[in-house]
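Worked example 3 (structure in, sequence out).
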């Protein structure tokens, strides 16, 4: 049985290139998504073996989508394919249970090896990411994000410039509920200005500047 893969990237050309590569190598690409929320929905409905996704995606970034997939689809493995290698991204990936981290500067062979390793239940980290991940694990001063998955989704959408009404529509919740999430996350973070929320989201790697 071929390894069944779901592709998630907000650039259509990237998805097309990955699909061509993976199908040539004998993988079965069962779906594509261009944002984090759709990625999670497709993972739930298609039950892929592996999800390949970028970190930077609208509505819910790859790390947040990975958190949701780990909870909803425990047999599905996630691999980040990204250009980002900052501590905040690695920390988020480790905490989200990501099983693979491949830099876009790596080769196609590296990516293929990563998929095969992860599908066998192993972990694949780019050599550069592996060293940084070890450093992160040894550090204790990096505080955990106190927000829930939903609150991080709301924070990302706010940081993307969405209004409370927009947030409600995108997440399929009432405007009152969206406002409640916004108020609660601001209290948790002790941040009371939108500009400061955006800065926090950037520092945490929830959105990119």
């Amino acid at each position: 049985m071929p390894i069944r893969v779901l592709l998630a990237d907000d650039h259509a050309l990237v998805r097309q290139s990955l699909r061509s590569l993976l199908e040539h190598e004998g993988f079965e690409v069962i779906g594509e998504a261009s944002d984090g929320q759709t990625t999670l929905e497709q993972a739930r409905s298609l039950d892929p073996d592996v999800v390949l996704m970028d970190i930077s995606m609208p509505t819910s970034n790859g790390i947040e989508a990975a958190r949701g997939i780990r909870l909803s689809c425990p047999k599905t493995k996630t691999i980040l394919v990204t250009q980002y290698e900052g501590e905040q991204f690695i920390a988020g990936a480790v905490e989200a249970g990501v099983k693979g981290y491949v830099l876009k500067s790596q080769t196609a062979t590296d990516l293929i090896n990563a998929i095969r390793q992860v599908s066998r239940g192993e972990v694949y980290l780019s050599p550069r990411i592996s060293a940084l991940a070890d450093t992160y694990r040894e550090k204790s001063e990096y505080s955990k994000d106190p927000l829930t998955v939903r609150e991080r989704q709301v924070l990302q959408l706010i940081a993307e410039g969405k209004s409370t009404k927009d947030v409600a529509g995108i997440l399929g919740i009432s405007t009152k509920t969206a406002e409640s999430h916004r108020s609660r996350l601001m209290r948790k973070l002790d941040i009371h200005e939108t500009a400061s929320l955006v800065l926090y989201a950037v520092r945490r790697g929830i959105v990119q500047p």
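Notes: The radius of gyration is 17 Å. The longest strand covers residues 28-33.
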